[in-house]
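Postdoc handover notes: sequence design on the structure in folder B. Input C-alpha cells:
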C-alpha cells in the first residue's frame, strides 16, 4: 500500500465544510477550493500575479491538506468506477504471466536475468554459470545453480516506494554495485555486495545519481553526484573498502547547462565521462586499467556540436552532428585522440541515433520516414546492410548486449499488435532466432487487431504521421471512441509499441492513436528543431491537427476523443486544452509541466538551467519570455468550456514539481468553475508514479476506467 490515503468515504455523505488555513474542503458534493494568496513576479516590465504560489511550500501542512483534500475528492468523484477499476486491473493481471523470466544475457562465465514471481511486486536479479558447450540461454524460471544477486522485494520491504538506480557487476564478476531510492526523488544510496560471499561491504555512499563504472581490477568504482539544483555535476572515484569521505573528485562540470555521466565501454578498456547540454557534448576517457590516471578529452566542446563515442579496437567511433544535421560517424585514434576520419557520411533524412561496437561488427541504430531501423557494418568493410522487418509499423533496437567479442547481437522488436519480442541475430549470416515473445495470456490473437498509418496536415502544411491500432472491423463501423497520445519534446520518439493494458481499451471498441508531432524525433533532427524554443507552438498545433484530422476522416468525433500525455507531454495536454478545448471530450495530464515559465525563470530549481536550450532563456530574452507566456497552460487558463480533466502528480517528483499540476487545477476551478477537474497526487512517489508492478497496474486501471467513463463506456 502506498502512502496515499485511499479512503472510500462510504460513510461520509453529509455537507461538511471545514477550513484548513489555505484550503476550504467541501465534501463530498463539491471539490476543494484553494484560497487565493496573491504573489507577484516581474520580468521584462511584465508583472504577473500568482494566487497559488503558496502551494510550492512542500513542508507547509496547508499544502499537504490541500493535496489530500483533492485526493479525497477524486476518490469520491470516481467511486462509481471502483468495479470497473477492479475489472481492468484483473484483465491486466490475467493477461500477464506473473511468474516469468527475462531472456538471459551472457557476460563472461554467467547468464544474467531478472525473474518475477506471482504475487511479488518487484523483479529478482539472478545469474547462473554458463554450462560447457551450451550456447543457448536458459529458458525456464527454475534454474539449477541459480544465484540471487538482488531481490527487489526484500530491498523494498517496509517502504511504499522502491527503485534501483544502478546495477553494475564488476569485470571479474565478483562484485555488484547497486543503489536504491525509497522516496521517488531519484536520489540513491550506493552499496557494494561481494557476490562470492553474499556480504555487503561497509562502503555506502548516499545521495548519488544514476550511473557507475568499475575499474578493470574492481579496486575502484566511479559514480555520480548532484549539485543543489539536483544537476549531475561530479564524477567521483571510490576505492573499495575505504570510507566515502576519502573519495576523490575525478571531474566536476562547472557549466550549469551541462549534466555528467559515467560508464564503461563494452570492450571494458575505458571509463567514459560524458558531459552534455541539450545541444553540446564533450567526452573524456581514461584507461580502466589505470583508474587514477587523468581523463583525456576526445574533442573539446563546441557549441551546437553533439557527439558520443564507442571504443572499437584501435579507434574510437564518434557519432556526431558536426556539419551533419542527421548525424554522421567518424573515428579517431584510441591511443592519441585527435583528427576525425569519416566512416559513415551524413545522409539527410536518415537520422543516426546511436552506434554500438563489437569486435568484428558495428551496428547503427537509425530512423527513416518515422520508423526505426538497424544497419550493420562488418569490420574492415565499407559495405553495410539493413535488417528487414515484415510489418509496416514497428519499433526495433538493440537490447542487452554486454559482450564485445561476439558475432551475435540481441534485438528487441515490437509493433502495436506484436508483443515485445527478443531475437538473437547472427551478424554474419543475418539469421534471426526468436528467443522470446512476451506472453499474453487469455487467448490473445494479433489477427484480431490491425494497425494503420495516417497523416494529418498542420496549419503550416507539414504532414504529421499518426500511428493507429484498433480491433479488427472497428474502422469500417464508423466513428469510434479514441484515445490519442502525444509527447513532442526533447527529440524523444514515441514509436509504435505493444501494451497489454491497452487491450482493455481495444476490446471495448476504443481506437488508440499516437500523434508523432514536432518537437519529438520521429522524423529526424529537423522535426525536433521545428518544435522547440520559438517554434514550440508547432508541437501543440500539430497535435490539434491530428485530433481534428481523426475526427474529420471518420475515425472518431470530438465527443468521443480523449487525449493523454505525460511530463512535457502534460504541457502539451494543458496547451491544447486552452487552444482547442472543443476538440476533446477529456484529457489525461500526467505529471504535467503546466507552469513552464515560472519554473524556467527560476535557475535554482532542478533542471531549469539545462532546459534553457530546449525552451529558451526567458530571463535574458524578452522574446522568449513573451512566447512562453503565450502558451503556458497555467498562465492562459480562461473562462472556457474545458474538457473533463484528470491530472496526476507525484509529491516527490524532481522533474515536474508537484505544485505545477496542483496550481493548475486550483486556477481552473476558480476561473472556469463549471468544469470537471480531478487531481490525484501520489504522496509517496515521484515522476514515474507507483513503483511496484501491481501498484502500477492499479494506477493504469484507474486512468483507463476514467477514460472509459468519459467515452460513455464505463
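Designed sequence:
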Amino acid at each position: 500500500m502506498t502512502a496515499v490515503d485511499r479512503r472510500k468515504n462510504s460513510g461520509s455523505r453529509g455537507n461538511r465544510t471545514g477550513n484548513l488555513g489555505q484550503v476550504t474542503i467541501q465534501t463530498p458534493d463539491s471539490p476543494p477550493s484553494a484560497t487565493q494568496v496573491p504573489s507577484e513576479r516581474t520580468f521584462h516590465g511584465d508583472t504577473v500575479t500568482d494566487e497559488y504560489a503558496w502551494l510550492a511550500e512542500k513542508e507547509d501542512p496547508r499544502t499537504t491538506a490541500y493535496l489530500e483534500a483533492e485526493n479525497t475528492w477524486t476518490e469520491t468523484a470516481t467511486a462509481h468506477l471502483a468495479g470497473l477499476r477492479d475489472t481492468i486491473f484483473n484483465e491486466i493481471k490475467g493477461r500477464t504471466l506473473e511468474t516469468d523470466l527475462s531472456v538471459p544475457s551472457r557476460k563472461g562465465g554467467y547468464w544474467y536475468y531478472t525473474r518475477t514471481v506471482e504475487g511479488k511486486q518487484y523483479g529478482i536479479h539472478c545469474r547462473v554459470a554458463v554450462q560447457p558447450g551450451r550456447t543457448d540461454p536458459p529458458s525456464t524460471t527454475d534454474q539449477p545453480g541459480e544465484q540471487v544477486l538482488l531481490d527487489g522485494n526484500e530491498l523494498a520491504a517496509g517502504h511504499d516506494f522502491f527503485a534501483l538506480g544502478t546495477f553494475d557487476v564488476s569485470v571479474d564478476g565478483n562484485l555488484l554495485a547497486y543503489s536504491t531510492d525509497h522516496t521517488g526523488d531519484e536520489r540513491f544510496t550506493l552499496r557494494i555486495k561481494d557476490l562470492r560471499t553474499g556480504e555487503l561491504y561497509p562502503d555506502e555512499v548516499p545521495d548519488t545519481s544514476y550511473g557507475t563504472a568499475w575499474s578493470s581490477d574492481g579496486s575502484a568504482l566511479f559514480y555520480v553526484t548532484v549539485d543543489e539544483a539536483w544537476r549531475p555535476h561530479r564524477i567521483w572515484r571510490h576505492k573499495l573498502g575505504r570510507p566515502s569521505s576519502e573519495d576523490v573528485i575525478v571531474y566536476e562540470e562547472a557549466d550549469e547547462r551541462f549534466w555528467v555521466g559515467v560508464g564503461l565501454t563494452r570492450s571494458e578498456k575505458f571509463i567514459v565521462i560524458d558531459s552534455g547540454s541539450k545541444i553540446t557534448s564533450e567526452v573524456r576517457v581514461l584507461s580502466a586499467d589505470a583508474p587514477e590516471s587523468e581523463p583525456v578529452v576526445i574533442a573539446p566542446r563546441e557549441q551546437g556540436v553533439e557527439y558520443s563515442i564507442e571504443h572499437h579496437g584501435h579507434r574510437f567511433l564518434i557519432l556526431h552532428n558536426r556539419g551533419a544535421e542527421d548525424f554522421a560517424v567518424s573515428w579517431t585514434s584510441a591511443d592519441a585522440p585527435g583528427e576525425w576520419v569519416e566512416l559513415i557520411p551524413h545522409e539527410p533524412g536518415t537520422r543516426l541515433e546511436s552506434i554500438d561496437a563489437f569486435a568484428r561488427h558495428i551496428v547503427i541504430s537509425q530512423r527513416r520516414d518515422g520508423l526505426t531501423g538497424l544497419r550493420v557494418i562488418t569490420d574492415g568493410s565499407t559495405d553495410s546492410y539493413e535488417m528487414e522487418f515484415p510489418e509496416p509499423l514497428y519499433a526495433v533496437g538493440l537490447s542487452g548486449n554486454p559482450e564485445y567479442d561476439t558475432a551475435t547481437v540481441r534485438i528487441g522488436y515490437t509493433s502495436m499488435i506484436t508483443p515485445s519480442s527478443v531475437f538473437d541475430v547472427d551478424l554474419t549470416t543475418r539469421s534471426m532466432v526468436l528467443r522470446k515473445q512476451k506472453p499474453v495470456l487469455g487467448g490473445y490473437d494479433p489477427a484480431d487487431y490491425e494497425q494503420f498509418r495516417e497523416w494529418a496536415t498542420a496549419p503550416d502544411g507539414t504532414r504529421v504521421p499518426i500511428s493507429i491500432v484498433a480491433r479488427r472491423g472497428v474502422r469500417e463501423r464508423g466513428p469510434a471512441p479514441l484515445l490519442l497520445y502525444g509527447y513532442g519534446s526533447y527529440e524523444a520518439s514515441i514509436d509504435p509499441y505493444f501494451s497489454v493494458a491497452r487491450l482493455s481499451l481495444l476490446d471495448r471498441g476504443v481506437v488508440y492513436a499516437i500523434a508523432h508531432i514536432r518537437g519529438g524525433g520521429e522524423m529526424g533532427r529537423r522535426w525536433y528543431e521545428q518544435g522547440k524554443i520559438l517554434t514550440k507552438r508547432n508541437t501543440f498545433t500539430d497535435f490539434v491537427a491530428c485530433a481534428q484530422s481523426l475526427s474529420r476522416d471518420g475515425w472518431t468525433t470530438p465527443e468521443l476523443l480523449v487525449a493523454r500525455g505525460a511530463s512535457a507531454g502534460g504541457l502539451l495536454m494543458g496547451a491544447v486544452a486552452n487552444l482547442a478545448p472543443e476538440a476533446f471530450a477529456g484529457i489525461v495530464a500526467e505529471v504535467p509541466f503546466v507552469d513552464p515559465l515560472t519554473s524556467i525563470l527560476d535557475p535554482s530549481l532542478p533542471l531549469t538551467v539545462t532546459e534553457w536550450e530546449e525552451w529558451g532563456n526567458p530571463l535574458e530574452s524578452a522574446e522568449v519570455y513573451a512566447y512562453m507566456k503565450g502558451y503556458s497552460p497555467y498562465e492562459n487558463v480562461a473562462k472556457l468550456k474545458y474538457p473533463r480533466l484528470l491530472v496526476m502528480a507525484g509529491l516527490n517528483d524532481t522533474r515536474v514539481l508537484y505544485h505545477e499540476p496542483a496550481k493548475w487545477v486550483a486556477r481552473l476551478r476558480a476561473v472556469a468553475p463549471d468544469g470537471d477537474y480531478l487531481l490525484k497526487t501520489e504522496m509517496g512517489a515521484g515522476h514515474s508514479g507507483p513503483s511496484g508492478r501491481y501498484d502500477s497496474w492499479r494506477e493504469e486501471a484507474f486512468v483507463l476506467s476514467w477514460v472509459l467513463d468519459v467515452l460513455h463506456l464505463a
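Context for whoever picks this up: Residues 693-710 form the longest helix (18 residues). Don't rerun without checking with the PI first.
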